[in-house]
Design goal:
Blueprint lengths: L1 E10 L2 E11 L4 E5 L6 H8 L7 E6 L2 E2 L4 H6 L1 E4 L11 H11 L4 H14 L15 H13 L5 E5 L7 H14 L4 E6 L2 H7 L2 E6 L2 E6 L1 H8 L4 E7 L2 H9 L4 E8 L5 E8 L6 H10 L4 E7 L3 H8 L26 H13 L3
Parallel strand pairs: 3-8, 3-9, 6-7, 7-8
Antiparallel strand pairs: 1-2, 1-4, 4-5, 9-10, 11-13, 11-14, 12-13
The structure holds adenosine-5'-triphosphate (ATP).
Adenosine-5'-triphosphate binds next to β2 and α1.
């Protein structure tokens, strides 16, 4: 459906997109995941024909976005990070305006608008002025606008940013339901969102594609090596001589713990190797008591952090409004937030 080849975008001397290559197949939900400034919006703006690339090509359903922009753009519905809404229009007026812009034939407009309003759950607010709607409903209107013309591909830039947890869940459900008939590409800096909604994740860091796979495969691939963390009573030399004889240990390090004479030992074994018993006997032979032993596997969150390490880019005023990489997860569970927000949301619409 979409083929991106050797895509480069430079803003002056700044390389925002660095030789991206990927293809998007029909009927799946793809997630662009990356920290702020990774190049997600820039890539989406190039795919949708909003801005030109410095190098490389984008073809949409076989149409080059620069050579055949009309044909390529007809296949795409775009919801930018800031939905292009006219706040003084009613929902129905705005969608009619969007249909005019998209050159939907006049006799077909009314029916199409009704259909997209049903699909996005905004039929009841068709006569309401957009500025009086809650943010969640405005986002639905933005999605409805993207759906006008029934394009095969929907490109959604941070579709849940700024929504409360209940609205987030609703919009995610809506996106999932739209994916039955559309190919969806969405961008997000929130890992939990992308892994909850997308079939396929593309992790972008500093303009480069650093990983792309299903959420399950990404964690599996990266979780190859077994990691152990131990508390051992002994000296670094004694621990080193015990661990040093175990061939399947690929790396290890010791540091002092809060308890005197007790070391924190972190070690990594080769993929598929289980070295727990060997560690136990090696320490026991040298009379080094193991006070604690834990295996740690790599979560998708660890994978993301490792791949995008240093990917966030503080920049002047951007610093102040930086979003958390894991959004709500760092603060409270979505369930806790839901409970808290449900009451506030009730009167929002
Ligand atoms: N019009 C522009 N002029 C100059 N630099 C730009 C412009 N637009 C984006 N950039 C820079 O290009 C890089 C990529 O920005 P982009 O908006 O694509 O990232 P992003 O991954 O979408 O981030 P965010 O989640 O913050 O929107 C950033 O360093 C940004 O500052």
């Amino acid at each position: 459906m979409i083929e991106v080849k050797n895509l480069v975008k430079k803003y002056g001397g700044h390389l925002a997109v660095d030789n991206l290559n990927f293809t998007v197949e029909k009927g799946q939900i793809y997630g662009f995941l990356g920290p702020n400034g990774a190049g997600k919006s820039t890539t989406m703006n190039i795919i949708t024909g909003y801005i030109a690339s410095t190098e490389g090509t984008v073809t949409v359903d076989g149409h080059d976005i620069l050579e055949e922009p009309e044909a390529a753009k007809k296949c795409i519905g775009y919801l930018p990070e800031q939905p292009p809404l006219y706040f003084d229009m009613t929902v129905a007026e705005y969608l009619n305006f969007a249909a005019e812009l998209k050159q939907v034939e006049k006799p077909k407009r009314k029916e199409m608008i009704q259909e997209v309003m049903e699909m996005t759950g905004i039929t009841d607010v068709g006569g309401r002025v957009i500025k009086n709607l809650s943010k969640g409903y405005r986002q639905r209107v933005g999605l409805a606008q993207a759906l006008i013309g029934f394009p095969e591909i929907l490109i959604l830039d941070e579709p849940t940013v700024g929504l409360d947890p209940k609205q987030m869940i609703e919009i995610r459900e809506l996106i999932k339901s739209l994916s039955k008939n559309h190919t969806v590409i969405l961008s997000s800096h929130i890992l939990s969102e992308v892994s909850a909604v997308c079939d396929y994740i593309m992790i972008i860091s500093k303009g480069k594609l650093v990983a792309s796979d299903t959420p399950e495969n990404l964690s599996k691939e990266m979780a190859g090596a077994q990691k152990l963390s131990l508390l051992v009573k002994g000296s670094p030399q004694e621990v080193e001589s015990a661990v040093g004889n175990i061939h399947q240990v690929s790396s290890f390090c010791c540091e002092e713990s809060e308890q005197e004479g007790v070391l924190k030992v972190s070690l990594e074994a080769e993929p598929e190797a289980d070295v727990r018993e060997e560690i136990f006997f090696a320490m026991a032979d040298r009379k080094l008591p193991i006070l604690e032993l834990m295996t740690t596997s790599m979560s998708l969150e660890d994978v993301f952090l490792e791949l995008t390490e240093g990917g966030e880019e503080p920049e002047g005023e951007e610093k102040g409004r930086r979003k958390s990489m894991f959004g709500t997860r760092l603060k409270k569970t979505p369930e806790e937030e839901l409970e808290e927000e449900e009451e506030n949301h009730a009167g929002n619409l």
